[in-house]
Amino acid sequence: MDFLTIDSSTGIEVGVCRSEMGHYRQLAAASSASTREHAEQLTPLIRTVVDQAGIARPDAIVVGTGPGAFTGLRAGLVTARTLARAWNVPLYGLSTLEILGLAAADRGAQEVVAMIDARRKEVYAMRVRPMGADDVAVIVAADVMAPADLADQLRHEPAIIAAMSADLYPELDGVAERAIVMPTPVVMARLAESRRARAEAGEEIDLGAEPQYLRRPDIHGQ
């Protein structure tokens, strides 16, 4: 099964992952660090990875639902929905924070605070733990908070910080070990297949591609 993966919560990360009997292989990946040109760059990047993977279309699309910048996140979700309809393939939405949490769990972390810069001197944060090889359990739901408040939390309840950049707020310096991780095609495909299997087994699993904004958009900054 070939998955097209898209995450636009900050920059742009797209790729194609092939799943074969529990084994996952990245066929192609492309990215852009731009936080302001998602609509212009997404389609060309997706075309590039689909061509590099040598497929006509994927069997499913996995999209990160944020939280993240309003404009970029919306562009990724609209693109994912449009392609899913055009190709007539399933669309699975996953929290970007849970994706980052699973990526950190792959490195041996047993307690992870996944974090995304929310701008305005705030962060989006979620605490998770590994659940099996390809999933995570949410311990503390996603929230927007001041870096100093997150630092206080980590001093009392230690965890590894999972973030897409080493450039964190100074309030978080020295309070926890950091894992620099990305929403890679393999991690996103693994989590999507785990969630789909759990849903098929009767669990109430939300795989909808609705954005997780957590706060009102900043029309000037986003």
UniProtKB/TrEMBL annotation:
The keyword Transferase applies. One of its GO terms (cellular component) is cytosol. PANTHER family: TRNA N6-ADENOSINE THREONYLCARBAMOYLTRANSFERASE (PTHR11735), TRNA THREONYLCARBAMOYLADENOSINE BIOSYNTHESIS PROTEIN TSAB (PTHR11735:SF11). Coiled coil: none annotated. Pfam families: TsaD. One of its GO terms (biological process) is tRNA threonylcarbamoyladenosine modification. Keywords: Transferase. This is tRNA (Adenosine(37)-N6)-threonylcarbamoyltransferase complex dimerization subunit type 1 TsaB. Residues 34-138 form the Gcp-like domain. It comes from Trueperella pecoris. It comes from the Bacteria. The keyword Magnesium does not apply. GO terms for molecular function: transferase activity. SUPFAM superfamilies: Actin-like ATPase domain.
